[in-house]
Amino acid sequence: MAFDFASEIADLKQTFASIREVSNIDQLRSEVAELTEQAAAPDLWDNPDEAQQVTSKLSHRQSRLEKLEKFDERIEDVELLVSMAEDEDDDDALQEAQDEVSKLARELSDMEIATLLSGEYDERSAVITVRAGAGGDDATDFAQTLTRMYVRWAENNEYNVQELDTSYAEGAGVKSATIQINAPYAYGTLSVEAGTHRLVRISPFDNQGRRQTSFAAVEVIPLIEQTDHVDIDENDLRIDVYRSSGPGGQSVNTTDSAVRITHIPTGVVVSMQNEKSQIQNRAAAMRVLQSRLLQLKHEEEEAQKKSLAGDIKASWGDQMRSYVTHPYQMVKDLRTGYEVNNPSAVFDGDIDGFLEAGIRWRKEEQQKAEEENALS
């Protein structure tokens, strides 16, 4: 079947018109100007973390603004290319035009997803913790595989990744691992990964080669910023120091530099061992503790709203995704129905399809809940 340029280009125009309508381009220009001024400050790099945040936000907004401002022109260019190619019966030029239309469609999909990330903390960097669940060595190995999956996703997108804490299992893999992905909208994008993940495979740890099901839990929280505020009473904290350890209990540090902070009223525990000094680990642990307490505060507020509004059917459920490598190859998201037949690629960081489907699903569920509340 011949490629229907007229229909495809019409769809591009219609979709872009909708995106442009909900995108505040004037505000985006203002933000770019303000961030450009901050980036030019002579003392910017006196605080490297803040400087990284400013330059990253500036780059992200400049890229988004440029795409919004030039997209109409790019559609006109491809229309002209199609017209000239058809007049001259130039198959090579028509193929070039088809490739460009497909590229524009992919970029529009990314832009459309960006418009759906409008939550209070969606713009933040993300702190991801993966914990092994039921399944013994298979579960701890699975937890390590999932952690690597998120690291590879970040690296594929050229995002900065920091390893904050790793608790190695006595056998294979990790009991838990915490990483920080520094990028605009990392939290909003990755928050749909939160939940229970399930792996079905032939266990490499079973000498009889039997099939094993194992589980891992993924927690995603927004990174705390200096403008946030959660009151923490020092008397509510229990702070323990210990020596960092590597795989199999191997000691990797001869000093008590690792830090574990317990927030006694909530029971929230944060461990940090990847920085070089106890002071650095304590500061990093306090930031993650602040983030978790902030998340807990908002979850309590949301729970109160839901109890007042009645039951909203927008639950993620216990198992949100299954990864199967035997007896067939499949990764399927149980909320959205999105699935692929290449677990190896997924474990290597190819999760954009799952993220996009999850973000769209979440928005649809939110809209349904709002409609139900309006009718009640």
TrEMBL record:
Post-translational modification: Methylated by PrmC. Methylation increases the termination efficiency of RF2.
GO CC aspect terms: cytoplasm
Molecular function in Gene Ontology: translation release factor activity, codon specific
Location of the Prokaryotic-type class I peptide chain release factors domain: 243-259
Modified sites of kind N5-methylglutamine: 250
Alphabetically ordered keywords of this record: Coiled coil, Cytoplasm, Methylation, Protein biosynthesis
Pfam families per the UniProt record, alphabetical: PCRF, RF-1
Localization per record: Cytoplasm
Gene3D superfamilies named in the record: 3.30.160.20, 3.30.70.1660, Release factor
UniProt entry tagged with the keyword Protein biosynthesis: yes
InterPro entries reported in the protein's UniProt record: PCRF, Pep_chain_release_fac_I, Pep_chain_release_fac_I_sf, PrfB
Stretches assigned to coiled coil: 68-114
Keyword Nucleus: no
Family to which this protein belongs: Belongs to the prokaryotic/mitochondrial release factor family.
HAMAP family: Rel_fac_2 (MF_00094)
Purpose: Peptide chain release factor 2 directs the termination of translation in response to the peptide chain termination codons UGA and UAA.
Name of the molecule in the record: Peptide chain release factor 2
Underlying gene: prfB
